[in-house]
UniProtKB/TrEMBL annotation, chain A:
Magnesium listed as a keyword: no
A GO molecular function held by the record: nitrogenase activity
Protein's UniProt name: Nitrogenase iron-molybdenum cofactor biosynthesis protein NifE
SUPFAM superfamilies associated with the record: Helical backbone' metal receptor
NCBIfam families: nifE (TIGR01283)
InterPro entries (UniProt xref): Nase/OxRdtase_comp1, Nase_comp1_CS, NifE, NifE-like
Protein family per UniProt: Belongs to the NifD/NifK/NifE/NifN family.
Gene (name only): nifE
Residue ranges of every copy of the Nitrogenase/oxidoreductase component domain listed in the record: 38-433
From TrEMBL, chain B:
Cofactor note: Binds 1 [8Fe-7S] cluster per heterodimer.
The Nitrogenase/oxidoreductase component domain, residue ranges: 42-463
Name by which UniProt lists this protein: Nitrogenase molybdenum-iron protein beta chain
Keywords: ATP-binding, Iron, Iron-sulfur, Metal-binding, Nitrogen fixation, Nucleotide-binding, Oxidoreductase
Gene from which this protein is expressed: nifK
GO cellular component: molybdenum-iron nitrogenase complex
Catalytic activity: N2 + 8 reduced [2Fe-2S]-[ferredoxin] + 16 ATP + 16 H2O = H2 + 8 oxidized [2Fe-2S]-[ferredoxin] + 2 NH4(+) + 16 ADP + 16 phosphate + 6 H(+)
Required cofactor names: [8Fe-7S] cluster
Organism of derivation: Heliobacterium chlorum
Signal peptide: none
EC class of the enzyme, as a word: oxidoreductase
Family assignment from sequence similarity: Belongs to the NifD/NifK/NifE/NifN family.
Length: 453, 480
């Protein structure tokens, strides 16, 4: 049952030679910056949103202390996933090993916190001191009735991407297919790679309900452990964040014969296209009809609301730097508001994501190659964009250069997915670009004296 | 044995009631192997904050890249400022062969791309577990001409599995002095007072220290001075190396006429080095939070330098006392729980006691036995301190049990306390680090007389706001 994940071939080199193509799972350049997180973080990103599970970090304080509840994945029910659980390894544990402590911790968590499962994460330290995560989990399992699941993605394995993949392997090998649903809906789908950041999922669900699609399992936003176990009975996988879990959908296709499509729920165009693709995949005439009717109605409603904002924003120029599905989907979404992307870049994406972004952008647009802080500052200086759309680490750099900034990654507190999300997004962009603070910053003080001749 | 033997509860409501019970509290406090919602960060995060206080210094993380990203994120979110840091991104092959290649290449790239005047190198767990020899590696980097032969570098060993962020701050500061300060000239001093603020995440506090010491007419160097790194004025240009303690001031540190440490537990190693090894005239005071602690700080300055306390500071003190008098009825007799770093808790306790507030639960995840004793002394010195219990090495899940079984009126601590405060249905006044769900809390001081006024304002107004929001209509009124 337990697989040594470090032996799996999870790394690959980027097949693209294009400038600015993401260095997928490659070593970061030492000394260039500290923009990239680690495999441990990548595994946490994927599995942490399982809301009714306990997530135990087997490591020193840093790994859990700096990361507990640090992402905006929301839950409509259980809050257990937020709890920062760690073995807090100390010097003596490093010398004598931490397995006993870990076993005790797992048993303690299972007894007192009523989890549906216990995920146990390795870290650099636990891996380097030779703690055997799998054996410790097996040992603890003897005393615990819920599944104890080792997640072996210590930080030094590499980038976030690798951790995402390890998490996909864990889901596929140890969770999916371990329980059967009571009934199977004829139009049951799974979302793969939707983490319900800021409540994104809740902006998509009304559309699914309206057209008669049942969400069997969302991996893993607002997820319940038992729903994920039955994910193999869905009829279709919808890969929402393509970078992280492509391996999972491919394996599910092979083993359970579930076809998959890729899609995005950012922006009007992409939301409609994804809904259409889902309906088409089932090929049911009634479903297709309902979907078209829903799209017609929601597109008109949404366009009517954002029209005045689009009129104001039209002609503004943005720099886009993000990862995953947003890499390309945001190009379209911004254009729907009349905003051109004059420079775009990505670090944590697949080559496919990158190529899609490039294809959507204006051929004259700049592809960001130097993703360090220094590179960003040069870019801002050269292009003076009206808006930067990126993640939290770039935010204050943008502010310092008087550039309006919108957080599109996990640090945001507003949901942008689905038709409702597009309205929220349009308002957020307008609030950002037209905030009066930018003007205040640009005016010299004390005022420069103009001499009248 | 199954997990149901200790808790037969199945429904959510019963489960919550059980978590809130005295029975659960006892089990919770018997917990050894597991830490839940810990209120501490790790050594390198403290080292990073320390390094930001030296002008022109680039913090350099020797170890896993994810660690560095976490530090940046945490500091980013608290200060709402860009935080410059590089990492040498050690991966699996470095775990096998050691991190020397990463360090040499990393130093070279960082030096060329970011053009710092110096670098502060500190380690993460990974480098420490595999036993990297930093001294040798840095010498080899110089020999390989990855950086100039005379390029200033200080390095500290800061594994996360030892101590906490305050230990890392201390280790980095001591390393800066040991590697980059010139040897002390016999009896000659440079006539400057060096103030060591410790792990202090309030740029407002550093400004307050400068204002107070300046008012006394004492030439001052704050070491390290991360005020601008934590709170850079807006100019339209991003300056990666804002003002801080200059390298000249660092080089001249051991010729100081005196050192004053305004925290006792976050810089104890550096304190011993300065006082016992270097034999410099050195004072250490409780973090000057509240009126009495500020009085003691100013008296210590006065005694060290022979300068009197000027009339303008007496006036400031008078205003603080006035503010405390005006607000005493909102705080006197109220019961408090608090958590945070040792020095913060030591100072805050003094403040609460002088206002007649009753500390009940004091939780310090990174507190030592020496800290517990010192805090107990402060509590024993006041009739309002009798109800307090100091819990060192405990986390916020322990605190939750305490709040549920022995309720209080208010919680003081950083943003992480919001879950406990919500469960206990009491307000949280945000003091400490990190504060990531409110703005500007770090910009106003909590030290000095000004800080005392701010604390009175925050605490008293929160109580009044709560009354306005929750009182029955018949008690809703204009006056409070």
């Amino acid at each position: 049952m337990f697989v040594n994940l470090t032996k799996l071939d999870l790394k690959e080199t980027c097949p693209l030679t294009d400038k600015g193509a993401p260095k997928l799972c490659m070593k970061a350049l030492p000394g260039e910056g500290a923009e990239r997180s680690c495999a441990f973080d990548g595994a946490r990103v994927v599995l942490m949103p399982v809301t009714d599970a306990a997530h135990v970090v087997h490591g020193p304080i840093a790994c859990a202390g700096n990361s507990w509840d640090n992402r905006g994945a929301k839950s409509s029910g259980p809050q257990l996933y937020r709890r920062g659980l760690t073995t807090d390894l100390m010097e003596m544990d490093v010398v004598y090993g931490g397995e006993k402590k870990l076993i005790q911790a797992i048993i303690d968590v299972a007894r007192k916190h009523q989890p549906k499962a216990v995920f146990v994460y390795a870290t650099c330290v636990s891996a380097l001191i030779g703690d055997d995560l799998e054996t410790a989990c097996k040992e603890a399992q003897k005393d615990v009735s819920v599944p104890v699941i080792p997640v072996n993605a210590p930080g030094f394995m590499g980038d976030k991407n690798i951790g995402n993949r390890v998490a996909g392997e864990v889901l596929f090998r140890q969770i999916i297919g371990t329980a059967e649903p009571e009934t199977v809906h004829p139009f049951a789908i799974n979302f793969i790679g939707e983490y319900n950041i800021a409540g994104d999922l809740w902006g998509i669900q009304p559309s699914l309900e309206a057209i008669g699609i049942k969400l069997q399992a969302c991996i893993s936003g607002d997820a319940r452990f038992d729903d994920i176990r039955t994910a193999h009975r869905a009829k279709l996988n919808v890969l929402v964040c393509s970078k992280s879990l492509t391996n999972l959908v491919k394996q599910m296709e092979q083993k359970y014969g579930i076809p998959y499509i890729e899609g995005s729920f950012y922006g009007i165009h992409d939301t409609s296209a994804t809904l259409r693709a889902i309906a088409k995949a089932f090929g049911d005439a009634g479903l297709i009809e309902r979907t078209e009717a829903h799209i017609l109605q929601k597109e008109a409603e949404t366009r009517a609301v954002i029209e005045p904002l689009k009129a104001q924003l039209s002609g503004k120029r943005a720099v886009l730097f993000t990862g995953g599905v947003k890499t390309w989907s945001m190009v379209t979404t911004l254009r729907e508001l009349g905003i051109d992307v004059l420079a775009g870049g990505t670090q944590n994406s697949t080559p496919d994501d990158f190529l899609r972004m490039k294809a959507l952008m204006d051929p004259t647009a700049h592809i960001i190659e130097d993703t360090s802080a220094a590179g960003f500052l040069t870019l801002i200086k050269e292009k003076s964009p009206d808006l930067i759309v990126a993640g939290g680490k770039t935010k204050y750099l943008a502010h310092k250069t008087r550039t309006p900034f919108l957080d599109i990654n996990h640090g945001r507190s507003l949901p942008y997915a689905g038709y409702a999300g597009m309205i929220t997004f349009a308002n957020a962009v307008a609030r950002t670009v037209f905030s009066p603070v930018w003007e205040k910053m640009r005016v010299a003080f004390p005022p420069e004296v103009t001499v009248n001749e | 044995m199954s997990e149901n033997t200790t808790c037969a509860c199945t429904s959510t409501k019963a489960a919550v009631e059980y978590l809130n019970s005295v029975e659960y509290k006892e089990k919770n406090f018997a917990r050894k192997a597991l830490s839940i919602n810990p209120a501490k960060a790790c050594q390198p995060l403290g080292a990073l904050l320390c390094a930001l206080g030296i002008e022109g210094c680039l913090p350099f993380v020797h170890g896993s890249q994810g660690c560095a990203a976490y530090f940046r994120n945490t500091l980013n979110r608290h200060f709402r400022e860009p935080i410059p840091t590089v990492s040498d991104s050690m991966t699996e092959d470095s775990a096998v062969f050691g991190g020397q290649n990463n360090l040499i290449e990393g130093l070279k790239n960082a030096y060329q791309v970011y053009k710092p005047s110096m670098m502060a190198v500190f380690t993460t767990c990974m480098a420490e577990v595999i036993g990297d020899d930093l001294n040798a590696f840095i010498n080899n980097a110089r020999a390989a001409e990855s950086i100039p032969k005379d390029f200033p570098i200080a390095f500290a060993q800061t594994p996360s599995f030892v101590g906490s962020h305050i230990t890392g701050f201390d280790n980095m500061l001591k390393a800066l002095l040991q590697s980059l300060a010139d040897t002390r000239h016999g009896k000659w001093t440079n006539g400057r007072l060096y103030l060591v603020p410790g792990f202090d995440t309030y740029p407002g506090n550093l400004r307050e220290y400068k204002k107070l010491v300046h008012a006394m007419g004492i030439p001052l160097t704050v070491l390290p001075d991360a005020e601008e790194a934590m709170d850079a004025p807006h100019t339209g240009e991003y300056n990666m190396y804002p003002k801080g303690t200059t390298m000249a001031e660092l080089a001249d540190a051991l010729n100081a006429s005196g050192f004053i440490f305004t925290q006792k537990f976050s810089t104890s190693g550096t304190y011993k080095f300065v006082k016992n090894v270097q034999k410099i005239n050195t004072e250490m005071v409780t973090m000057p939070i509240g009126i009495k602690n500020t009085d003691n700080f100013l008296m210590a300055l006065s005694e060290m330098t022979g300068k009197p306390i000027p009339a303008e500071l007496e006036k400031e003190r008078g205003r603080a006392v006035d503010s405390a008098t005006d607000a005493h009825q909102y705080i006197h007799g109220k019961r408090f729980a608090m958590f945070g770093d040792p020095d913060l808790l030591l100072g805050l306790t003094g403040f609460l006691l002088e206002m007649g507030g009753i500390p009940v639960h004091i939780v310090c995840t990174n507190g030592t036995e020496a800290f517990r004793k010192e805090l107990q002394k402060v509590l024993d010195g006041s009739p309002f301190g009798k109800e307090a219990t100091v819990h060192t090495g405990r986390d916020l899940w322990h605190l939750r049990s305490l709040l549920m079984t022995e309720p209080v009126d208010m919680l003081l601590g950083d943003s992480h306390g919001k879950f406990d405060a919500k469960d206990a249905n009491i307000p949280l006044v945000r003091i400490g680090f990190p504060i990531v769900d409110r703005v500007n809390m770090h910009r106003s001081p909590i030290v000095g007389y000004e800080g005392a006024i701010n604390l009175v304002t925050m605490i008293a107004n929160t109580f009044m706001e709560q009354t306005d929001r929750t009182c029955p209509d018949r008690f809703f009124e204009l006056l409070r």
